[in-house]
Amino acid sequence: MYFTTHALVGGFCSGLLDGPIRAFVGGMVSHIVLDALPHHDYPRFAWGILDVLTGVSLVFCLREKFSEFTYFIPGVIGGALPDLEVVLNHLSGGGRRLFFPSHTGLTPHPRWRWPWGFFSQVLVVCFVIVCYLWNR
């Protein structure tokens, strides 16, 4: 699952929660749920860098647009933070033990090829934003 997807879904889920701790935990729970959906992961590390830059830019733009809920950023961090262990494992050459449930194999992590795995993430992000707007 892409950083942008985890960050946006975590952020918008936090708009439905009360408090920064609940928003952070909600973002982490959304990470597990998203990793259990069929999706596409980037084939090269360079795509990950582009994804992070895109995600951070969108988060800051949306944070201004949806400033009425103050727990957007903790939700974003909770949604995206678990993948930091994957990045660190990749940068160190692999072989590190992963801890997050959807990275260890404890929960399913199905993959779809491009473009279907990409479009599945776009649909999920759109669905979560519509749900957030519907419940405002």
Write up what this structure looks like.
With 136 residues, the protein is mainly alpha-helical. The protein has one domain. The protein is 65% helix and 0% strand. Helix 2 runs parallel beside helix 4. The longest helix is centred in the middle third of the chain and has 21 residues. It starts with a helix and ends with a helix. The model has no long low-confidence stretch (mean pLDDT 88).
Compact overview of the structure:
This protein is mostly helical and 136 residues long. 65% of the residues lie in helices and 0% in strands.
Main beta-sheet strand count, sense and barrel state: none
Output the helix-strand order.
HHHHHHH
What is the count of structural domains?
1
Span from first to last CA? 27 Å
The proportion of residues in beta strands is under 5%
- The count of DSSP E runs of length 2 or more, i.e. the number of strands, is 0
Number of helices: 7
The gyration radius over C-alpha positions equals 14 Å
Mean pLDDT: 88
Chart the SSEs and their pairings.
Elements: H1 3-14, H2 20-35, H3 45-65, H4 72-80, H5 84-91, H6 101-104, H7 116-134
Descriptors for this entry?
136 residues; mainly alpha; globular
